[in-house]
Amino acid sequence: MIPETSTTLLRDISSDIDNARWPEFVSRYRPMMHAFLKARFPTVDADDIVQETLVALSRALPGYRYAPDETGHFRNYLTGILRHKALKRCEHEARIRRVKSELGIVNAPESVGTADEDRIAWRKSLLEIATRQLLADKKISGKSKQIFQRLMVDGKSPDDVAAARAILERMMCHDRIEFVIGTKVNESHQDPNVPQDLELRRSVVKRIAAALEKNYRKKVTVDYY
Q1: What's the pTM value of the predicted model, to 2 decimals?
Q2: Which of 61, 80, 143, 192 lies 20 to 30 Å from 18, alpha-carbon distance?
């Protein structure tokens, strides 16, 4: 049954979110809202959606003007909010099903964490899926994938990635590249528990030089002093 619109009721609850007539409004419209959800969105939790709708309505009512000849009946306004909330819930549940499918989750265990912990866990799962999909997408350039990999997967800082990218781009502008490597070891900074600093430098430079020669056809020379 569709309740008759009471302009005085709308006026009172619009002017004050704590108005004493809110229970009257809820009891008047809740059956209609439940019937609407049962007919069109039978899989959602009706109580949750009704609650979300009432919260959204309380925020929107101060700017609402009841003019049925111009903007339509209030019940249409209310069911519009209700429909939007139900559709958002359906989309959310569909995303969760996709995450479960991607991660191979058949029967998800009952939640044992807080709501925030569950939300963070799902975001991490979504990030994992997004990362795999992005790195496999052939439409995305190799450069963009490398930057994403270093930032999101390797955990590098944006400044470090930008600096490394700038060095590489400068190298790409030249056909001949010369590395000048110092061989002096600063004893005060040398950790005896790790390989010698000089060997690390040599190894890194050799790898860079080999990649430049093989992949980019650069003429590379390495000088030590």
Answers
A1: 0.49
A2: 80
